[in-house]
Amino acid sequence: MSVISEHDVHLSSFEPVAKCVKSMCPKCKASRMYFCYDCRTPQPGVFTPSVKLPCSVDIIKHPKEKNSKSSALHCKIVAPDQTRVFDYPDVHDYSKDSEEERRTTAIIFPSASAISVEEFVRTRGEIKRIVVLDCTWFQVGVMQKTPQIQGLQHVSLQSYRTAFWRPQHKVPETGLATIEAIYYSLREYQELGLKETYSGEFDDLLYWFFLTKHFVDEKQTEYFKRKEEKEEKNK
């Protein structure tokens, strides 16, 4: 399993946001750079890519998952009309949806009863909405017991290695960041479920993810350079 990099996807240029500075969010008045992660809206005048997804996405956030560190919110920024975000325990009650809506909704979670995306489409038809749990692997036990999501079909993904720079303790490298899970879910749905060729239509789901990774990689490079210089001086 290889790790996806920005060279494997067709991202919009980072140049339009290269000189961005923090400004006040018009809604909550907080100081933000590119988008307000609390209001979940782009900052006025700041470039953000826009994508059309093959189905809608619902995100259920754990209360201890900080908005400032949540990659899941990137989906709301680049696909606002197709993305809903619920802050646990204030969750949409899927049990009140119509039978058709429930039949076409899939939770991305590798439980014992989970089936593949391909099998879901073959046995149940199209996926109109995926639901993802935005939390750490240590919080997921509580989240999956949320009453409002019981009875929905679980779907598991193929195995991928994360490109995330902040791995969770004792979680294997196959533990994906939430935005990675959303991206791979939608790709599998388009390629394996709908049997349609994928040509990078929603690669920009990973735009803010890889922009952040740029900053992290630069910080790490600077740190190791200073460390090396210090060791050289102490010889």
From TrEMBL:
<dbReference type="GO" id="GO:0008033">
    <property type="term" value="P:tRNA processing"/>
</dbReference>
<keyword id="KW-0808">Transferase</keyword>
<comment type="function">
    <text>Catalyzes the formation of 3-(3-amino-3-carboxypropyl)uridine (acp3U) at position 20 in the D-loop of several cytoplasmic tRNAs (acp3U(20)).</text>
</comment>
<keyword id="KW-0539">Nucleus</keyword>
<comment type="similarity">
    <text>Belongs to the TDD superfamily. DTWD1 family.</text>
</comment>
<protein>
    <recommendedName>
        <fullName>tRNA-uridine aminocarboxypropyltransferase 1</fullName>
        <ecNumber>2.5.1.25</ecNumber>
    </recommendedName>
</protein>
<dbReference type="GO" id="GO:0016432">
    <property type="term" value="F:tRNA-uridine aminocarboxypropyltransferase activity"/>
</dbReference>
<dbReference type="Pfam" id="PF03942">
    <property type="entry name" value="DTW"/>
</dbReference>
<dbReference type="InterPro" id="IPR005636">
    <property type="entry name" value="DTW"/>
</dbReference>
<dbReference type="InterPro" id="IPR051521">
    <property type="entry name" value="tRNA_Mod/Golgi_Maint"/>
</dbReference>
<feature type="domain" description="DTW">
    <location>
        <begin position="32"/>
        <end position="220"/>
    </location>
</feature>
<keyword id="KW-0819">tRNA processing</keyword>
<keyword id="KW-0949">S-adenosyl-L-methionine</keyword>
<dbReference type="GO" id="GO:0005634">
    <property type="term" value="C:nucleus"/>
</dbReference>
